[in-house]
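Protocol step 4 of 5: obtain the predicted structure for the target chain.
Materials: sequence only (see below). No template structures provided, no constraints applied. The aim of this step is simply to have a reference model before the mutagenesis design in step 5. Sequence pasted as it appears in the construct record:
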Amino acid sequence: MEKSFTRTQRARREDIISAAIVVINREGYTAASVERIAKEAETSKSTILYHFKTKEAIYEELVITLYHNGAAYMTERIMAVETYRDKLCAYLSSNLHFIAEHAAHVNAVHRIQENGGLQSDGSDAVTPLATLLSSGQKAGEFGFFDPLVMSLVIRAAVDGASFHFTTHHNLDFEHYINQTIQLFQKATALP
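Step 4 output (structure tokens):
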């Protein structure tokens, strides 16, 4: 059962997560101590430890927040369209836009994962995508391909973009996103 927080507690926790993102990106995973996070958040170490019992708890919340916010961002956009082809475009566009718009948060999660931190929020990103593709095939909107393999390729492209986007700040994100959408529109098209 999820713990209930007051508005003030939620705001303070968000400030701490934001500070952790800044510190990890600026100083690196190893240097991101509770003390440095507290200094960046302009609060005390005891306040940090009141909200998060350990540095690892901060990191866990940082990872979970990224996945949760990304899923909410994507779901809203995917559910706003009707056809499976449009849903696939919305899936790609929203996922890649979210990464581009939250590059610092994404990069902090990469650093945590590289250093043995929380690897995933426990959700499976491939199965729902494979279901979308399979349903689109049944509806006659997509051509013949293995939905699981295509889902894995799409996830590999998106996950690869998350690393590329965070290290190439001057990248033309819109061009990259449009090219990725076009690629998968062609790959899933009817013959």
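Step 4 remarks: The mean pLDDT is 93. The radius of gyration is 19 Å.
Proceed to step 5.
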